[in-house]
Amino acid sequence: MKSYRKEISFNIPTRRGLVNITRDVQNSINESGIKEGIVLVNAMHITASVFINDDESGLHHDFEVWLEKLAPEKPYHQYQHNGFEDNADAHIKRTIMGREVVCAITNGKLDFGPWEQIFYFEFDGKRTKRVLIKIIGE
Ligand code: ZN
Q1: Of the chain's two ends, which shows fewer C-beta atoms within 10 Å, N or C?
Q2: Which band of pLDDT confidence, cut at 50, 70 and 90, is reported for residue 138?
Q3: For residue 50, how far is its CA from the centre of ligand 1 (angstroms)?
Q4: DSSP character for 76?
């Protein structure tokens, strides 16, 4: 069995933002040379998510609106976590949207269902953050 590890970085210029990272993940699979296996992709920070869904801008807007209803950014004082920081909503949004995804690799390609794409979802941006890609297989 082979393994391959890579980190990719993001510096989203706004507090929240969503990036399709499917190509980055597929490029890492290509670099690994692994044809049959599993890839794990996880946000390495507790205020960002990695998830799989459709690459459709209306849906991305709907996620933003839905998350703001569940865990509104403001007012900051509604959260006990805030004070030194102001990112309690980002921690909660990260937990709702998830930490990681695991995908099958078949014949060197991401073995996706229809319309599946991998996204990085930033909830407390304006700084550099990392995503871990770990591939195992042969
Ligand atoms: Zn915090």
Answers
A1: N
A2: very high
A3: 18
A4: G
The strands making up 100-106's β-sheet, listed across from edge to edge, are 2-10, 129-137, 37-43, 100-106, 109-110
Q: What is the pLDDT of residue 35?
A: 98
Residues 45 and 9: beta-carbon distance below 8 Å: no
Ligand 1 center–CA 10 separation, angstroms: 18
61 by DSSP, 3-state: which?
Answer: helix
Neighbour-count burial for 101-135, b at 16+ CB within 10 Å, e otherwise = bebebeeeebeeeeeebbbbbbbbbeeebebebbb
| 127 CA distance to ligand 1 middle (Å) | 14
Do 49 and 99 contact (CB within 8 A), yes or no? yes
| Domains recognised in the chain with CATH numbers | 2-137 (2.60.120.460)
Ligand 1 midpoint to CA 123 (Å): 11
Enumerate residues with CB within 5 Å of ligand 1 (an ion): 85, 87
